[in-house]
Amino acid sequence: MARELARLFRKHHLTYDQTKHAVEAARREVGLKPPKERQRTVARLDRGEVERLIDHAYRRAPVYGLMIKTLFYTGARVSEFVALRPGDLHLELEPPQIRIVVAKGGSDGYVPILPGLAQELRTHLGGRREGFLFESNRHDQYTPRMVQKVVKEAASAAGIEKAVTPHRLRASVATILLDAGMPLDQVQRFLRHKRIGTTQIYAETSVRNMGEQYVKALK
């Protein structure tokens, strides 16, 4: 079928509309469903939900609160987050920075963090320079699944009905930064995306949120 369509296109130099019609007819004949439209926006938490999430994580255990706060403020993927080591922290810089070892190819990146978070991380480490930034009671590296569990349980305790995952925290900080006016190319660098088109999805979410807030304010 595909070869026949290709020969048809080459032989008759079909226009876009003719090509579209031919493909749709062929799809119906073989019983194929059209591909789902790509989702151009991503689910996010607003700033208040993020604060509630972190607050309830701290209530359960201070280290869990600090884990979720660090995960959110760095925009790290969970696989990158669990691999962080004390040596990745550059807290003497202005502003303080954390080196993220990129999990999905490309070069490593440095992201800024707030001075308050930097001080919490200093206290958490207490001078320790070995191992991982966050470790279990057995001094093992946290698994991504365990971090996901910590985030999910904190969201439940905070009464957040949305499905909250580490990736949703990453999406949330991206759209919050865009809402605050950070240029798209800087958000791309912060998220360590290879292509700005990937970051553009977060920008479209930001614009949608702006529209929702506009209607809410003026209706």
Jot down its keywords.
219 residues, mainly alpha, hpI Integrase, Chain A
Descriptive notes:
The chain is mostly helical. It has helices at residues 2-12, 16-30, 47-60, 62-74, 78-81, 115-125, 144-157, 166-179, 184-191, 196-218; strands spanning 89-90, 97-100, 109-112. Strands 1-2-3 form a three-stranded antiparallel beta sheet, with no helix packed on it. Strand 2 and strand 3 (109-112) form a beta hairpin. It is elongated. The protein starts with a helix and ends with a helix.
Report a brief summary of the structure.
The chain is mostly helical and 219 residues long. The chain has helices at 2-12, 16-30, 47-60, 62-74, 78-81, 115-125, 144-157, 166-179, 184-191, 196-218, and strands at 89-90, 97-100, 109-112. 58% of the residues lie in helices and 5% in strands.
Question: How is this fold's topology laid out?
Answer:
Blueprint (H helix, E strand, L loop, with lengths): L1 H11 L3 H15 L16 H14 L1 H13 L3 H4 L7 E2 L6 E4 L8 E4 L2 H11 L18 H14 L8 H14 L4 H8 L4 H23 L1
Antiparallel strand pairs: 1-2, 2-3
Helix pairs in contact: 3-4, 3-7, 4-6, 4-8, 8-9, 8-10, 9-10
**Using DSSP, what is the number of strands?**
3
Strand order of the largest sheet: 1-2-3
Q: What is the averaged pLDDT score? A: 83
- Give the overall silhouette: elongated
Q: What is the end-to-end distance?
A: 53 Å
Strand content: under 5%
CATH superfamily: Intergrase catalytic core
What is the fold named in CATH at topology level?
hpI Integrase, Chain A
Low-confidence stretches: none
Largest sheet: 3 strands, antiparallel
Radius of gyration: 23 Å
Under CATH at level 1, the class stands as Mainly Alpha
Structural class: mainly alpha
Assign the CATH architecture. Answer: Orthogonal Bundle
Secondary-structure element string: HHHHHEEEHHHHH
